[in-house]
Amino acid sequence: MSFDAAACIGCGACVAACPNASAMLFVSAKVSHLALLPQGQPESKRRAMNMVHQMDEEGFGMCSNVTACEAECPKGISVENIARLNREYIGASFTSVK
Ligand code: SF4
């Protein structure tokens, strides 16, 4: 699964396809890729928080489960990664990670 998420090339097709201009598929692919590697564990909570906050700051829209991103992704990145990002983010929200 880590290597599936690692296939993301950052092309932005997911954002372009989304009616909300959400970058959740791209961000979740990066968070999943690193969160699933042993080397990525120490910073996993802080990474999820920081990447979501940066995504919001950049003005990307919210995910409303349209899944057009998955349909358009040339690398077959699954929306399951968005669910993982949400779990990572919620988990981090309950800790004092900044
Ligand atoms: S469309 Fe797929 S490969 Fe391109 S940035 Fe989005 S998740 Fe990554």
Kindly list the characteristics that best describe this protein.
binds iron/sulfur cluster, mainly alpha, globular, 0% strand, 98 residues, single chain
Give the secondary structure arrangement, pairings included.
Layout: H1 2-6, H2 13-17, H3 24-35, H4 44-57, H5 68-72, H6 80-93
Bound molecules: iron/sulfur cluster.
What's the short version?
The chain is an all-alpha fold. Helices cover 56% and strands 0% of the residues.
Small molecules (ligands, ions, cofactors) in the structure: iron/sulfur cluster
Mean pLDDT across all amino acids:
92
Q: What fraction of residues sit in β-strands?
A: under 5%
Main β sheet profile: none
In whole angstroms, how far apart are the ends?
27 Å
The succession of helices and strands, N to C, reads HHHHHH
